[in-house]
Batch of 2 targets.
Target 1
Amino acid sequence: MRTIVTTLGTDRVRRLRATLTVLLAAAAAGYVPFYFAPFQVFQLTMVLLYAVALSGLNLLVGFGGQISLGHGAFFAAGAYTAAVMLDRHDTGHLATLPVAAAGCFLLGLGFGVPALRLRGLYLALVTLSFAVFLPPLLKRLEPLTGGSMGLTVEKLQPPAWSGLAEDQWTYFVVLVVTTVALLLARNLLRSRVGRALLALRDNESAAEVMGVRLSLHKTLAFAWSAMFAGVAGCLYTWVIGFVSPDSFSFVLSVTLLAGLVVGGLASLYGPLLGAAFVMYVPSVSQDLDEAAPGVVFGLLIIAVMYVAPTGLAGLPGRVRGLVARRLPRPAAAPDRTPETGSPPDARPEPQAGDGPFATPGPADPAVVDAEPVGAPPRTEKE
Amino acid sequence: MLAVDGITVRFGGITALDGVAFTVEPGTAVGLIGPNGAGKTTLFNCLTRRCAPDGGTVRFEGEDLLALPPHAVAERGIARTFQNLGLFPRLTVRENVMVGAHSRGRTGHLAAALRLPRVRREERELRDQADDLLRRLGLADVADQPASGLPFGTLKRVELARALAVRPRLLLLDEPVNGLSHGEVGQFADLVRSVRQDFDLTLVVVEHHMGFVMGLCDKVVCLDFGRKIAEGAPEEIQRDPAVVEAYLGVAV
Ligand SMILES: Nc1ncnc2c1ncn2[C@@H]1O[C@H](COP(=O)(O)OP(=O)(O)OP(=O)(O)O)[C@@H](O)[C@H]1O
Ligand SMILES: [Mg+2]
């Protein structure tokens, strides 16, 4: 009885805390464009759109256990779809988004099918070849894509009623799209479908025995993932107003993957951290060492992976774990022993003697975060 | 209920199963025994479409099981556990069990992404059902913990819970008490007996622990080098000279 009450209590507290966090984040996100200079607002806008691409990649790599070194190409496909539509057909910005999304979804579906037969390095190689092969193709298709000169199109313009500057309006539009995209990804993962994907990642044959349709979920994971990258590319065109083959070399694909790993695989907010890394670290390393920014970038990746092997998103958990290990916690010990030592058939004791805080919650978040490839998504919140 | 006939599986040079045939009647528990490498796990793999036999047929309630795609087996009401634990280590115990209910869910990708009301409802139902099962098997305490890192005996029960979440009519257990301590074996046997009763299960059990098999099963099939060498009631099998020879390597 006591445990039930306390569980309900912590549930409500947790929900309250989640609501507060969301409200605070929303307030901060709304305040930011009025506080920072236009260039900084632009940088934040880029972080948001990279976060969309990374959360797509996260679906595939972090949660799906597959790999792609070709997401820069899906990004480019989305960007060029938007640019060509704006340049040729003058469709207006909003119409480009669903087209880029649908187009990249189908493209991803097309890649998902061969991906069923390939894994690990082979899959990496095939997707990488897509990323390598796309820029020259874009150069060749000059009548449509403007060749190596690229295409210059109109950026997003704030409508008069908004009273906002261009950078602020763009920021808000991208913020809305990013929020929707991240919500979609989160919903997907916290459902039967997401569990199927995670199960396939952890143990393919057991998942199939449980009735998970391997081909369906794996190809659709690829499609969703490509769609997110395409949407990010579309936003890129809206924000930058210029696309060229050189903006989307295979280095972009590698950078995206690196950003995801640094941010934290299989973590819900890892993509945001990774996006910040992708956005800021190259320019910071440029400042540090003009001759070879790549060296600094690489060293920083190594440094982060050394300090936080589960990515930046896993860092707080690791720190908490380390602190907990340093400080002896006398209360924790009796709490634990009956569990590990209990005979298998021991009925769940209602833990009456353990005080009001002895709830069977997620016992030790640090353990979750210490997992090699990030924590299961649903254990992080709620 | 289940009719296996003339199943043959070859891996390169070795014949893992050679014309094995037996039937399982509804509501019974059949033990499958045999020395290491006899082909017991391979037989389970055929039943759950993990491997395609080179010959023979498997019928489950009249339906040709070998014509089904692998993911459809669970839907028909067949679940199994794995010899070396086939859990999803990075999912929580509850999530593991909920994956077991996968074939009973309907939510597709689009509905899931939009989190439609019916998705929420289904999630809530599956979650409640999973929690019921976890309570039933004494796992409620560890529901939110990742499967990796739990004690072995607990994991064995988690795997059983996951298989039960399929709502199977036929349950295949591959060495369920392998690696458990003496006391745990007894408890697990009681557990299997009680869920068998409550969930109205038909069982096929692979196990080297003879006490467990003989105490639980109505019929025992013995394999050796892929061939069926004996079949019958537990007491007969224990006395069968071919079985004794297969296990001890000498004629008695
Ligand atoms: N995927 C495979 N590829 C090649 N050979 C295999 C494969 N699976 C099983 N075998 C072989 O088939 C034979 C039967 O193996 P199986 O695992 O079915 O035995 P088992 O009866 O389950 O033994 P144990 O009691 O040790 O679990 C063994 O010789 C094994 O080496
Ligand atoms: Mg075996």
Target 2
Amino acid sequence: MVLTGAEIVIRCLQEEKVEYLFGYPGGAVLHIYDELFKQEKVRHVLVRHEQAAVHAADAYARSTEKVGCALVTSGPGVTNAVTGIATAYMDSIPVVIISGQVPTGAIGQDAFQEVDSVGITRPCVKHNMLIKDVRDIAAAIKKAFHIAATGRPGPVLVDIPKDVTAQKCDFSYPKSVAMRSYNPVIKGHTGQIKKAVQLMLDAKRPMVYAGGGVILSDAADRLTKLVKALGFPITNTLMGLGGFPGTDPQSLGMPGMHGTYEANMSMQYCDVLIAVGARFDDRVIGDPAHFAQVARKIIHIDIDPSSISKRVKVDVPIVGNVGDVLDEMIRQLEATGERPDAEALGTWWKQIDEWRARDCMKYKNSDEIIKPQFVIQKLWEVTKGDAFVTSDVGQHQMWAAQYYKFDKPRRWLNSGGLGTMGVGMPYAMGCQFAHPGSPVACVTGEASIQMCIQELSTCKQYRLPIKIVNLNNRYLGMVRQWQEFFHGNRYSESYMDSLPNFAKLAEAYGHVGLEIDKPGDVEGALREAFKRKTDLVFLDFKIDQTENVYPMVQGGKGLTEMILSSEDL
Amino acid sequence: MRHVISLLLENEAGALSRVSNMFSARGYNIESLTVAPTEDPSMSRMTIVSIGSDDVVEQITKQLNKLVEVVKVVDLSEAAHIERELMLIKVRATGKDREEMKRMADIFRGRIVDVTESTYVMELTGSATKLDSFIEAIDRSLILETVRTGVSGIGRGDRILRI
Ligand SMILES: Cc1ncc(C[n+]2csc(CCOP(=O)(O)OP(=O)(O)O)c2C)c(N)n1
């Protein structure tokens, strides 16, 4: 069947079962938009800024196990999308971005709205390609979806010049992809897994450290089964929250810079550390030299060989898909019929419980002024711990991660790797599209929310009833906290002056806005908001301006060198 | 430590920049890089000489393998291998220097490939150190230009890099 390039693009997206295409039109993609208009299978979502298109596609992927998809025009369309692409890249999220390009003959001529899209995105994509021939479109898009979703997932950009979308050729969608240069390992090495299982059985002070890889490989059920069977303590990273039920007593909470005392102590003083789809990044283990001061055996499961022994030397590397490796571990463990040394494990748990008794997450609540931690606790209660929660970047992000106990995977969406302020609302949008009818809350700050505030308009157009929980401290809170700790209280440019009246702003966009400044009103406001099933409600909580995130490991310090409260300063 | 990394990659537009981009983005060093298509025109062979600790080079190999267009990677310097580089060098060759240059070219098994009244262009192949020592051995002030290709490498005997 002979089709134009633009028709082929849409047919490919249909073949890939793309439900939602987040995008923004422009000259170079007009043929594609014309074809979009003529069909109904792929539903286009018109955002208000291309950054939000990619974030929303990324959130769609994070909250499902599907690939997200975005469409942008050439030049500024692509440059606006770059932040979204880099954000997805850092967190290994499968997204396909289709970008328009100037006509092939104009490439390199400094044409209107020309930018070297493949060049500009190269360092922040898993792969990208420029299509110069209409006959290559179908294979390229098939490849793009395949590469984005397999191995260590990531964004893939397909750049298509305008003339190519007008040319015609015969269309058939490839059934499969075979690439001699790309064959990710799936199953882990059985011998290595055997070694790991033995180490785990012999451990006296075991600790499981689970990251985003568990979520990406949809292995939360297997991880939970294994950890339950072994009775081991577990910590889930910022990217891994929900990979093991946060309310389970075996969960020690999050590790790292703002992790719990017990999680960090256990990471440091265990004798066998089982890292599952986690990458020992600087925000988790702090200074690697300090981490290496204590001897421990490390098992590391990861699909990406380059994540292994990158920052920390490991003893038993296992390259493979987390889910498949855990399956094999469970199988082998059951086959041995052995269980870890109960007595040693008991002593270890006693030690952990002592660390836990420090109660590092306690905070002084107040009747007068709203404490941010209290808002998150109430959010958790009101939503029965079962909402999808997105966040922006800053203190509020850490409080959400600390105080909302995620029991299920893919419920917590945040920019862990790039730390992109502005993701919160677009993430909530992508998530709400993927889960219509489910409660979606966006925990944000008055600074972050302003980075993509224009999306309130998109939310109105598509009637997305997300709940925005704005922890408004009138400061770039996280910046202010660092200035308080490390820069002699010199609050250089971290005060947010001239803030809008957020409740009225939300109303101006046609939404519901609420302003809350008394602790006694927090729960009622949240209940009221979630009762409104069809409205976006912007909850502007005026919170304590001086509150800090604890515990804290200062950048570059050792994992156990924690500031637990203001008394430690 | 100096490492000679050899790779096969798809002969596609952008593949070279993806490799060089990765080196600069991650702060790895490149002493030299050579690339050209193989007997199978759909594939290129690249030799990269880099200096780094074993840990760094392990990361380099892993990161190279991660690039979608890279088919295979080996660290040639892990075992017996051959390295060759080609140098074209233009020297002033007048008076008694003319004879001396010819003599030096012979000692280093070079060939004179262009002759004028006052200059020679010589072609030399060998390991990078051999080319270095040639430059050391002749009078610096007589060198007009040097062009070096960078190192190409291949494993000895049964060490074969192919798909
Ligand atoms: C795009 C971007 N610019 C700058 C930063 C640096 N940064 C990290 S947190 C933060 C302050 C965030 O303030 P707010 O959204 O009000 O959240 P709070 O920390 O007060 O909860 C800043 C500026 C960033 N992460 N992202």
